[in-house]
Design brief:
Blueprint: H1 2-22, E1 25-26, E2 33-34, H2 37-49, H3 53-160, H4 171-180
Antiparallel strand pairs: 1-2
Length: 191
């Protein structure tokens, strides 16, 4: 009811303002009119005072809406920035994981390559050691065979030329007899 009365008062003031403008005296030779400035100002002041509550509420609602929109805009910008930071963090995390995996694969590949090279070097070293050992064993075997052959020769000579005193010849005599043998002599025959 109060709203309707305020609306009617406002409409009455609008009607009065219109009457002042329509009832104003015309300027000769034109479409302009001369109005009483004080009358118009007084009516406008009264209109402001009697503005309907709906209009004031509308202005208040518009102001609140603008404030809410500003807050919503700020909140959305904050959420977007937070989402960007989170996405950047996740992207950075994924990049770190990708780099770590790449580094791990590279290290594993290097380790396998180093292990293969170490095995090859150890195999080569073992082959060299075995070759040297085989050579030494063969040389030792030859020396043993030569020693056994020399022993057989010297035994044959001792049996052919026994010492008169005790049945053994002296070592010096045996050496001389062995050195006097030609390669074609057999140990049991005198030269």
């Amino acid at each position: 009811m109060v709203e309707r009365a305020e609306r009617l008062d406002f409409e009455l003031l609008l009607d009065r303002l219109e009457e002042v403008i329509v009832g104003a005296s015309r300027v000769p030779f034109g479409s302009r009119v001369m109005v009483d400035q004080q009358d118009c100002a007084s009516i406008i002041d009264q209109m402001r005072l009697t503005l309907p509550r709906q209009l004031q509420d509308a202005f208040r609602i518009i102001a609140e809406r603008d404030s809410i929109l500003d807050q919503a805009r700020m909140e959305s910008e904050r959420i977007i920035e937070q989402a960007h930071q989170q996405a950047s963090g996740e992207a950075l995390h994924h990049e770190i994981v990708r780099i770590a995996r790449s580094n791990a694969a590279e290290i594993e590949q290097r380790a396998e390559s180093d292990a293969r090279r170490a095995r090859e070097e150890m195999d080569e070293y073992a082959r060299q050691v075995l070759a040297r050992l085989t050579s030494r064993v063969e040389a030792t075997l030859r020396a043993l065979k030569t020693g056994a052959l020399d022993l057989e020769r010297s035994r044959g000579i001792i049996e052919r030329y026994p010492d008169t005193e005790n049945g053994h010849s002296s070592q010096t005599e045996r050496r001389q007899r062995l050195t006097n043998l030609s390669p074609f002599d057999t140990p049991g025959e005198p030269s």
